[in-house]
Design a protein that fits this description.
The chain is α+β, with helices and mostly antiparallel strands. It is built from three helices and five strands. The chain has one domain (about 5-89).
């Protein structure tokens, strides 16, 4: 897997998670989220970096066992989802 392919996977995860509401993110990410199954094209970890009364700050990292460099230096991104529904990427 090339870096550009992995970047597309990261962008897809950001779109997926940033579409969720403030309340849903607080609930779903209370203990973090990780998908690291063997055979998947990439692994993803999602963490709640900040949980404030007015917004949540979410961090996402992706890596692939098909691109060994990415396991040491995963691609990552973060975004904010505000209580009122605004999203800042």
């Amino acid at each position: 897997m090339k870096r550009d392919d992995l970047r597309l996977s990261l962008e897809a995860e950001v779109e997926k998670w940033s579409a969720k509401s403030y309340e849903a993110l607080r609930s779903e990410l209370k203990d973090g989220y990780a998908r690291c199954e063997v055979g998947e094209p990439y692994h993803v970890e999602v963490q709640l970096l900040e949980d404030r009364t007015d917004y949540v700050h979410v961090g996402i990292g992706v890596c692939s066992e098909h691109a060994k460099w990415s396991c040491f230096h995963p691609l990552s991104a973060s975004f904010l989802v505000y209580r009122d529904g605004r999203v800042k990427k």
